Amino acid sequence: MNMMYDVEKIRADFPILSEEIRGQSLVFLDSAASAQKPRQVIDRVSDVYETSYANVHRGLHYLSEHATAAYEGAREKIRAFINADDVREVIYTKGATDAINLVAGSWGRQNLQAGDEIIISYAEHHSNIVPWQLLCEEKGAVLKVIPVDDEGAFHLDDFTALLSERTKIVAVTHVSNVLGTVLPIKEMARLAHQQGAVIMIDGCQGITHITIDVQDLDCDFYAFSGHKLYGPSGIGVLYGKAHLLEAMPPYQSGGDMIERVTFAKTTWAELPHKFEAGTPPIAQAIGLGAAIDYVRSIGIAAIAAHEQDLLNYTTQKLSAVDGVRLIGTAAGKGSVISFVMDCAHPHDIATIVDQTGVAIRAGHHCAQPLIDRFEIPSAARASFGMYNTRDDADRLVASLEKVKEIFAR
């Protein structure tokens, strides 16, 4: 345990953690789905609406200028957080799903032809499967899938075997939301580029647990959502290399993404605004900037070390519970634990532990092909955030004993 990490001070910043659920103090173990928000983010979003809200980029009055400065200032915070080369490479989206669809709908439609190949993995969220399936159907392209082994581990040789001169894009998760498996993105990018392919990363689970340097990774696109990074919902980010974004056609059209409109022809705004049609999520973007400030004040490395301690502790505790089977035990995994019990369906598990104030997730986790791969109907999942404690893990384990008691009757 990291004695320098003041988890109680951090917990005090999250108002929802003082709530009682069904007469019990809340244990929130569902941060992989959506993280809770610190007071600093809540207050910043409220401040926007209370003191400085206006539409951005369009007004000459004080409020518009003030809102625009905060909105674009948040973009610079994001650029620094992921070490993008230029703020023009940071595109605001509605979320990671929107960002992936942007790449599939713009870059994919422009660059794929019949017979071309797209590579994804078994570890993908539906948001990084379905857009590529639709693109394949439209273009006559072929979807190839990298397997995972019985421990949920990814093997680079399996990826290399699928690469060919027909590969046009590799679209993979950084960290599996079910298994916790961390993919070797930097090496995958190198191999993909050798074949002339581009690589897109779904970074929803990576951005909260790993220091991201998109230039070092040399990925072409990196997508993440704000709500998993302790920020507001309704805001996400697409990082893209400038030369790729410049060559891509707009994904949506409307206000603010234009340079000039005539009835004969319309020309597009410069990056990043070419991909940001309409009134954007202004307060949400500023709130994401505040979330990044908060995360950086603690440090991703410190958060990751704390979560790794919780992962190791909880894995040990759960492994000692009779009838529990862990799904995803690859080395170096991220801070999610998926599991099943031989006495109860995952939906029953989640319902019963909720009665004790413990919030976990149950279902296919928007990863049905992966759940099918492990031949289970669904899985229960506990996922950690910066505010969780070993006591939270103990509460989970105790609640699972109640599950066993109920189903043993």
Describe this structure in words.
The strands form five sheets. The protein has a seven-stranded mixed β-sheet with strand order 4-10-9-8-7-5-6, sandwiched between helices. It starts with 6 loop residues before the first helix and ends with a helix. The chain has helices spanning 7-11, 39-52, 62-82, 96-111, 130-139, 156-162, 185-194, 214-217, 242-247, 282-298, 300-319, 346-354, 368-373, 390-407; strands spanning 20-21, 24-25, 27-28, 90-93, 117-121, 142-146, 167-173, 198-202, 221-225, 236-240, 258-261, 266-268, 324-327, 336-341, 358-359, 361-363, 379-383. The radius of gyration is 22 Å and the shape is globular. It is built from 14 helices and 17 strands. The chain folds into two domains: 7-30 and 300-407, Aspartate Aminotransferase, domain 1 (Alpha-Beta Complex); 42-297, Type I PLP-dependent aspartate aminotransferase-like (Major domain) (Aspartate Aminotransferase, domain 2, 3-Layer(aba) Sandwich).
